[in-house]
Design brief:
Helix 1 (16-31) packs across helix 9 (255-266) and helix 6 packs across helix 7 (205-215). The two termini are 38 Å apart. By secondary structure, the protein is of the alpha/beta class. Helices cover 33% and strands 15% of the residues.
Length: 298
């Protein structure tokens, strides 16, 4: 059985890019008779707010989407800590004192556009009392193996994660469990078979697959869809970050009209026609979905 999830971070208002991803995930799961989970990713306590979780649910309902289950990531601390314990027993964890400025001094860009970590602290050891008793960030000491992987859309995700991205942080200095670990553990515990998400996350996939292998977890199928982009005064394109937030979006569209607009932008409709997600199911096919990122002009 296909089991997939929509897993937005609750760090701000839903926006068109959020809803595009939600729609594509929903269409993929429902067109195959699969189970669909909404996972509210709220671990970043410095940025998340309860109202954003509630608004995400409201925005998806407004668009016409439903879920078989809604889970909150912060409720899963026990599972996340158990994974850290397993990695510690395997001798894979180490404390890291490096700052972002330290990483920038390496002058080496990672595949996601950030700064690659040069594994400077890799030879440091955890305190004898364990990972819970260090104030430093905690990283996983990766093997220098290559991950060979192509997603369902044909995107080559192959990397040597330890070199190309660097050993990942799995617990931040402020005590927050890091995204890379949490997403791997949560996907496995939910028996996720298919991960559908935006192309901006693609560079992290090899890192997540390596964590799956170290933890003895299965690797789901992956697909990374196109992004909505915004224009700036210098005509430079950037990923859509919060432009036209849902609080404004819902005053300019009703849910059916916006569903048709997203379907048109995605290539599923020849023109924007008010519709529901259910009305798109019969004609849904990934072969129809645009491959290239699209500039958002509304």
């Amino acid at each position: 059985m296909v089991i997939t999830r929509f897993a937005p971070s609750t760090t701000g208002e839903a926006h068109p890019g959020t809803l595009l991803s939600a729609l594509l995930v929903w269409l993929d799961a429902r067109s195959r008779g699969g189970r669909l989970i909404m996972r509210l990713e709220d671990l970043d306590t410095t940025r998340t707010q309860p109202q954003w979780s509630q608004q995400l649910l409201e925005a998806c309902a407004w668009l016409g989407l439903d879920w078989d289950e809604v889970v909150t990531q912060s409720d899963r601390a026990t599972a996340h800590e158990a994974a850290l314990d397993a990695l510690a027993r395997a001798g894979r964890l180490y404390p890291c004192r490096c700052s972002r400025a330290d990483r920038m001094r390496s002058s080496r860009r990672s595949p996601d556009g950030g700064w690659a970590y040069d594994n400077i602290c890799r030879n440091r050891q955890l305190p004898a009392s364990g990972w819970r008793d260090t104030p430093d960030a905690i990283r996983v000491r990766f093997p220098d193996d290559r991950i060979e992987l192509v997603d369902d859309g044909g995107l080559d995700l192959s990397q040597v994660p330890a070199r190309d991205m660097g050993d990942p942080v799995v617990r931040r200095r402020d005590g927050v469990i890091a995204y890379q670990l949490a997403v791997v553990v949560d996907d496995a515990d939910a028996h996720i078979t298919d991960v559908i998400r935006g192309r901006d996350i693609a560079p992290s996939t090899a890192t997540q697959v390596m964590l799956q292998r170290l933890l003895g977890l299965p690797t789901p199928r992956y697909r990374h869809h196109f992004l909505l982009l915004e224009t700036h005064g210098n005509n430079k394109l950037a990923k859509l970050h919060g432009s036209l937030p849902f609080s404004e979006l819902c005053t300019r569209f009703d849910g059916r009209a916006f569903c048709g607009t997203l379907a048109h932008v995605a290539g599923l409709l020849d023109r924007p026609i008010a519709c529901t997600p259910t009305e798109l199911l019969a004609g849904f096919d990934w072969a129809k979905v645009r491959a290239d990122d699209q500039v958002w002009l509304l």
